[in-house]
Amino acid sequence: MSKAIQVAIDGPASSGKSTIAKKIAKKLAYVYLDTGAMYRAVTLLALENNIAAEDVEKLKVLAEASEITFEPTKDGQRVLVNGLDQSAEIRTDRISKQVSKYAAVSEVRQVLVEKQRAYTQNGQGVVMDGRDIGTVVLPDAEVKIFLTASAEERGRRRFLENQEKGYSDMNLVDLIEDIKRRDLYDTTREDSPLVPADNAVMLDSSGLTIEEVEDKILAEIQQAIA
Asked: What are the binding positions for ATP in this chain (predicted)?
């Protein structure tokens, strides 16, 4: 595959976007950008600095001043926030419970969208996942995927992932309810709500293996390049 394109993968919480996006980017030797991690990073900084989601001006300044970078590792990548590895901390339930609220702030989204678009300026192929990549961040992406699964399936996945990483303080029932709450928040917010792009390929991953999802998306990319 010689032509470099932009791939946008959107979907609700715990739909497997990041896992799939990382695999696709690695296979194609594309840049991978986890936009959700950027919103989690700002949420972490806001909580550490006691800045409420309603304090828009302080949040905007915080987002502008934040340095969020991604460093490749053997197994994926680390998320550095102002020079510190916060890969594990931004995935804790403490952040998961708050991130939708901070991500809904228009001023924060505007700042981070500009940071995200900056990653596409060098002409490299890029795989980006989030909530509004195909609709707002990369509206001209050649491939747009909307990846979803039932709330129960997504809750189960997040529960197993948290258990494996050893930092969950929520049981399965609470996780499913939290995911439903985040879905409602994300789909009804005024700025960049979670909706499929008009030309997105809808893909329900319920009952599919990671490999099967990856193959379906790679087929879409191959078709776009051809």
From this structure: 11-19
